[in-house]
């Protein structure tokens, strides 16, 4: 009966269905169970956690929320090392997931302790598989994702004689060759930058490779994987031809660049729409557009997982909470509140998501667009421990150095040296 209710709820995407299935564990334990959950930035869980406690009178949940992801994850690994202090449910951003999977012995296998009716079929396959360690243990239930599309300035395209309709621009973003060729044309006609920074483009290209900076046996591949160097050469060459605005992502100059038309295109995960609107401002509504196309076919930037550390004194109750929060109906509620794009198959088929439009981007059906992009992602990229740190602190800073005058070869040597230090 419970399995049938959960299936019906997932199809209908209405609130409360899975919660009705979940009760009992806390009552079987003979009293109140106090759980804690740790998250960062904005997951949209405040109202959901209050709802969960109403539906489960024997459960109380304390929510520890940190403003920034960097300090949050630093504390996470400190508490892991000390074997104390972690919450019962711990959120992990996908950029740090490889480091967590390398310590998977400190986390519970959710396929063993989670509700039986929570199966792989709930999630996009690539999202589910990315939450597993090398032995096949499921360490995290997927929350949101960041499927990639391309944002661009319609008015700047029109001024350069390029097509500007969201359907008409798709051929410009059909492949990386097409993207950089269009960039050359744009620079030639306008003398202005095509994209924001070398690092943002390199990261997108790199994340489409089957493996990241490490091989599946966790050997550093910075020099053995020729595709990494090829992407480096391609991006730095485009930057040298004037395509980069040389802006460090999330800096004040980068923020103001959206308003000042400092670049014509932007790699756009679903959550980037909110950034564009906030930074470009209401005066640029209708000038920015987004299309369901991305060079190389598709990709993902962002998203998180809910894990249950072995430090938890109530692992099964914690897994049940994590399962409920990542059910499609709860993820739709989080999406409507915060814009976090769900990774659950039934949520991606929900009219509440598919009918979502964005007036700022010309009334585009943004929910439908990003659901389409999410399905274009194939297999998850293998990332070894330290992979995220190499991308964030090594390749990005080395590309900035190239933009400021270092040669591509000099920048690449910085990458090799920095990656080797992290891999030791």
UniProtKB/TrEMBL annotation:
Name of the protein in its database record? Sugar ABC transporter substrate-binding protein
Signal peptide, first to last residue:
1-19
Q: Name one Pfam family in it.
A: SBP_bac_8
Residues forming coiled coils:
none
Which keywords are on file for this protein? Signal
The UniProt record lists the keyword Acetylation: no
Q: Which organism encodes this protein?
A: Actinokineospora bangkokensis
The keyword Cell inner membrane is assigned to this record: no
């Amino acid at each position: 009966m419970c399995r049938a209710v959960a299936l019906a709820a997932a199809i209908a995407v209405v609130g409360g269905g899975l919660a009705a299935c979940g009760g009992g564990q806390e009552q079987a334990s003979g009293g109140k169970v106090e759980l804690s959950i740790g998250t960062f930035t904005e997951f949209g869980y405040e109202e959901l956690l209050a709802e969960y406690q109403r539906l489960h009178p024997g459960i109380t949940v304390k929510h520890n929320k940190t403003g920034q992801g960097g300090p949050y994850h630093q504390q996470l690994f400190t508490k892991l090392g000390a074997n104390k202090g972690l919450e019962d449910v711990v959120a992990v951003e996908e950029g740090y997931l490889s480091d967590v999977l390398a310590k998977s012995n400190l986390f519970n296998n959710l396929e063993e302790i989670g509700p039986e009716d929570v199966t792989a079929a709930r999630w996009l396959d690539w999202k589910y598989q990315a939450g597993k360690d090398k032995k096949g243990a499921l360490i995290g239930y997927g929350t949101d994702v960041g499927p990639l599309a391309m944002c661009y300035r319609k008015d700047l395209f029109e001024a350069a004689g390029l097509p500007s309709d969201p359907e008409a621009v798709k051929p410009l973003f059909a492949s990386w060759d097409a993207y950089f060729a269009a960039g050359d044309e744009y620079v030639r006609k306008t003398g202005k930058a095509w994209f924001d920074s070398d690092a943002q483009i390199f990261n997108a290209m790199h994340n489409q490779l089957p493996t990241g900076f490490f091989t599946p046996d966790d050997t550093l591949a910075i020099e053995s994987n020729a595709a990494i160097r090829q992407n480096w050469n391609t991006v730095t060459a485009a930057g040298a031809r004037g395509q980069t605005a040389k802006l460090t992502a999330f800096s004040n100059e980068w923020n103001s660049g959206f308003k000042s038309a400092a670049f014509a295109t932007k790699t756009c995960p679903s959550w980037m729409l909110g950034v564009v609107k906030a930074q470009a401002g209401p005066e640029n509504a209708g000038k920015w557009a987004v299309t369901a196309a991305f060079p190389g076919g598709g990709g993902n930037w962002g998203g998180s997982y809910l894990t249950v550390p072995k430090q938890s004194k109530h692992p099964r109750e914690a897994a049940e909470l994590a399962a409920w929060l990542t059910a499609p109906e709860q993820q739709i509620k989080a999406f409507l509140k915060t814009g976090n794009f769900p990774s659950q198959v039934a949520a991606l088929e929900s009219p509440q998501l598919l009918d979502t439009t964005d007036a700022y981007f010309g009334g585009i059906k943004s929910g439908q667009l990003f659901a389409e992009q999410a399905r274009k992602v194939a297999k998850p990229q293998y990332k070894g421990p330290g992979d995220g740190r190499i991308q964030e602190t090594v390749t990005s800073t080395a590309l900035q150095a190239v933009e400021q005058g270092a040669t591509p070869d000099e920048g690449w040597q910085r990458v090799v040296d920095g990656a080797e230090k992290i891999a030791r």
